[in-house]
Design a protein that fits this description.
2 copies of one chain form a homodimer. By secondary structure, the first copy, chain A, is of the alpha/beta class. Chain A contains 12 helices and 13 strands. In chain A, the strands form 3 sheets. The first copy, chain A, has a 5-stranded mixed sheet with strand order 3-2-1-4-8, with helices on both faces. In chain A, strands 11-10-9-12-13 form a 5-stranded mixed sheet, with helices on both faces.
C-alpha cells in the first residue's frame, strides 16, 4: 500500500490571477489532493511572482506528504495574450508590467519539472471537460460570467487554441453590430449584456431611467452599489425591474450560447461564475432561450449545465492539459 | 511512364444537390482530372438517384481513360441533416422524400468502392482548405453566400462535425436576438442579412419603402426581379440605395465572420458564392468591418479570401475528406 502511493504520479495545477494565485496538487484522474491560494503581489514584478509561485508550490508538495519527484509536470493558467506553445506571456491587463515574460522557462527553472502555460479561461473550460461538469464529452464550450465573459472551446477532446493562441473569446462575439461599445473596441459583445457587471449596469440604468425597484432600498439609495447579486435577490422578491433586467440577460446569454451551439454542435456547454448560484432561475429560462435560437437536432444533443469545479477549475484544467496535451507544450 | 499513370490513385468526388449532381475524378493531391454535372432528378426517388450517380460516375471513369480499380474511394457531399459516420441522410429540404436514406451503403454497392458521406457545406469548406484558397491552413472557416448562408469549420486540420454531425451552421448564428425571424425559427440569423437573397430583399424593402434607385429601371419596375447582382450593378453606378444595402450587408457579414474569428482564431476565412465576383468592392470593406469587431492580434493572424474552387468545391472537398479522414468513415 505504502509503496503504491509513493510511486503514484501527481501534477501541479496553477492559476495565476491578477489578485490571487491558486495552486493545487492533482492526481492523473483530475482529483484534487491539496490546494492553497495566496496573493499574486504582481507589483513586485514577474521574477518575484514566478519565484514565489514555485516556493509556495514546493511548500504545498511538502505539506501534502509528497516528495518532489512524485510531481510529474506543472500546468499554469494565466491571463493573455500569450504564446502558449513557448509559454511566453505577451502582456496582460491584470498583470501590470508583464511584457514578454518567459513564464514556462522561468517556472521550469525554479520548479525543476516541465511546465505548460495556457490561457486561464481555456484552462477553466478544459478542467470542466476533463474532471467536471462535462467530463468525457468530446466537444465542449465553457463560458465564465464574471467582470467579463471568458470562454474556452474543446473540439474532439482537444483544446482549441487557434492560429496564435487567442481562440475562445466567446465574450467578444457580437450580438448586435450596432450595439453597446465594448472595451475591446467592438460593438455588441456578449460581455456587454451577459457579464455579472452588465447585469448590475443594466439594473442601474433602469433605475436611473426612472424604474422603481426594491433594489434602490437594498443599496440604501446608493445605486453604484448594485451588483448582480442585488438583482438576483430582487428577482426572488418578484421585483419587476429586476425581472426585466434578468430576462434581457437571459435572452442575450441564450443567443450567445446558441451561436456556439449552431456553429460547433457540442455535447455540453458549461456555465461558470457566481451567477450560476441562481440555479434553476438561471438554467431553466436559459435552456429555453437557447432552444429558441438553435436547430432541434442540435439542441437535442447538448446539455447546458453549471460548472462543478468552482475556483480551482483553472488549476485543474491546467493540470489536465499538461497530462493530456503534453505534446503541444513540448513535454 | 504508362505503368506509373496506370497505378496512380484517384478518388471520386461527388456533390449531390437538389437540382444537379457534380461528379469529378480527383487525384490524391486535390487536382481535378475530369468532371461532369447532370440533373439530380430527385422526383424519381433515392434508389434511382443513387444508381444514376453510380452509373454516370462509372461512365466518367471510363471516359477519363481510367480503369475502375484506379479509383480508390468516393466521397459525396449531401444536404443534411445526416449521420455522416454511418452515411445516412435523415432528410433534406432540397431532396423531397429522402428520409433515412442509406446513401453510403447503397452507393458502395453500386460503385464497388468505399464511400464517405458528409454535409455539402462542410465539404466545400474542406475543399478550399485542402486544395483551394486556404490550402495548408490548420484552422479555417468557410462561408458560402447563396440563397442561404452555409458554413464549414476546420480545426487543427480536421473537419468539425460535432456531437451529431450538425456543426458549421454559421448562417444560423444570430447577430440580433430581436432581429429578423429566420425560416429556422431563430431570430437575427446571419443568413437573414448576408445571403444573396437577403441583399436582394433589403433592396426591395428599401424601394418599396420609397427609396429612389436605378435598380427600379434595371428591372423595368418589376421589383420582384431584383437580385443581388442588380444591387451590385447599381452599386457600381454609385446608386445611393444600393450603397446603403451593400453597406448593411457588409456590416452584418463582417460581424458574423468576426464572431467566428474571435471564437476560433483561424488562419483563414474563405468566402464563396456568386457575390465574391464583386472582388475588392466586397473584400476591402469586409476586411475593415471584420477588423473593427476583432482583437488586433487575432485579426493579424487571419486572411479573409475569396474561394478558388468554384462549383466543384464540394466534390473536391468530399474527395479530400475520404483521403485524409477515411478513418472517420470507417474506410
Amino acid at each position: 500500500m505504502k509503496k503504491k502511493s509513493n510511486t503514484k504520479k501527481y501534477v501541479l495545477g496553477l492559476d495565476l490571477g491578477g489578485t490571487n494565485v491558486r495552486a493545487a496538487i492533482i492526481d492523473t484522474s483530475g482529483k484534487l489532493k491539496s490546494y492553497i491560494h495566496f496573493p499574486t503581489e504582481s507589483q513586485n514584478g514577474p521574477e518575484y511572482v514566478i519565484k514565489n509561485i514555485a516556493l509556495k508550490s514546493l511548500e504545498l508538495i511538502g505539506k501534502s506528504g509528497l516528495s518532489k519527484k512524485q510531481i510529474w509536470r506543472a500546468g499554469i493558467g494565466s491571463p493573455g495574450p500569450m504564446d502558449s506553445k513557448k509559454g511566453i506571456i505577451m502582456g496582460a491587463v491584470n498583470l501590470p508590467g508583464w511584457k514578454r515574460v518567459f513564464l514556462k522557462d522561468t517556472l521550469e527553472k525554479f520548479l525543476g519539472v516541465g511546465v505548460g502555460v495556457d490561457n486561464d479561461a481555456n484552462c477553466a473550460a478544459y478542467g470542466e471537460r476533463w474532471a467536471g461538469a462535462a467530463k468525457g464529452a468530446s466537444n465542449v464550450v465553457g463560458i465564465t460570467l464574471g467582470t467579463g465573459v471568458g470562454g474556452g472551446i474543446i473540439i474532439d477532446g482537444r483544446l482549441v487554441r487557434g492560429a496564435n493562441y487567442n481562440a475562445g473569446e466567446i465574450g467578444h462575439t457580437s450580438l448586435n453590430p450596432d450595439g453597446r461599445l465594448c472595451k475591446c473596441g467592438a460593438k455588441g459583445c456578449l460581455e456587454m449584456y451577459a457579464s455579472a457587471s452588465a447585469i448590475a449596469e443594466s439594473a442601474r440604468e433602469a433605475i436611473r431611467g426612472g424604474a422603481s425597484s426594491i433594489m434602490t432600498e437594498a443599496v440604501r439609495g446608493d445605486i453604484k452599489k448594485i451588483t448582480s447579486k442585488t438583482v438576483y435577490e430582487a428577482l426572488l422578491q418578484n421585483d419587476k425591474t429586476a425581472e426585466n433586467v434578468w430576462n434581457e440577460f437571459i435572452k442575450y446569454l441564450g443567443a450567445g450560447i446558441a451561436n456556439q451551439i449552431n456553429g460547433l454542435n457540442p455535447e455540453a456547454v458549461v456555465v461558470a461564475g457566481g451567477v450560476i448560484n441562481a440555479g434553476d432561475r438561471l438554467f431553466t429560462p436559459l435552456r429555453e432561450a437557447v432552444r429558441r435560437q438553435t436547430f432541434a437536432l442540435t439542441f437535442s444533443a447538448v446539455k447546458i449545465v453549471p460548472a462543478q469545479l468552482g475556483e480551482f477549475a483553472g488549476a485543474i484544467g491546467a493540470a489536465g492539459l499538461v497530462i493530456n496535451e503534453g505534446d503541444f507544450y513540448g513535454l
